[in-house]
Amino acid sequence: EVQLVESGGGLVQAGGSLRLSCAASGFTFDDYAIGWFRQAPGKEREGVSCISSSDRSTYYANSVKGRFTISSDNAKNTVYLQMNSLKPEDTAVYYCAAAYSDYDLLVRSRYDYWGQGIQVTVSS
């Protein structure tokens, strides 16, 4: 059974930091790209960051570039999203997802498996 389990969310003040984790199981981790998406109330789910399967290249949405860092620990089948300098507009439910693809990795439709999501709230 494929599972993607997010952890590390919570409430933080603006300017603070959080580290999200995505623990994967049930598939060959090295064969999949992993992405982080987020969805704020009333908005579409958007791609935040991703890491490719081929060479673990990383990609970021412009809104988080320079503040968020994605990394992968293949030995633990876990991907992390370090979020620094958080802003109230980063408030959303964050999802990790797995894609058997290395194209258009910030596009939601590329992804095959999804986690249940975790809330991140940034207070002003």
Layout of strands and helices, then pairs:
Layout: E1 3-7, E2 10-13, E3 18-25, E4 33-39, E5 46-51, E6 58-60, E7 68-73, E8 78-83, E9 92-99, E10 113-114, E11 118-123
Parallel strand pairs: 2-11
Antiparallel strand pairs: 1-3, 3-8, 4-5, 4-9, 5-6, 7-8, 9-10, 9-11
Give the averaged pLDDT, no decimals. Answer: 96
What is the N-to-C order of secondary-structure elements (H for helix, E for strand)?
A: EEEEEEEEEEE
Count of alpha/pi helices = 0
Q: Biggest β-sheet, characterized?
A: 7 strands, mixed
Percent in helix: under 10%
N→C terminal distance: 40 Å
Count of extended strands: 11
Descriptive report:
This protein has about 120 residues and is mostly beta strands. About 0% of the residues lie in helices and about 50% in strands. It is built from no helices and eleven strands. Strands 2, 4, 5, 6, 9, 10 and 11 form a seven-stranded mixed beta sheet that branches. It is globular and about 40 Å long.
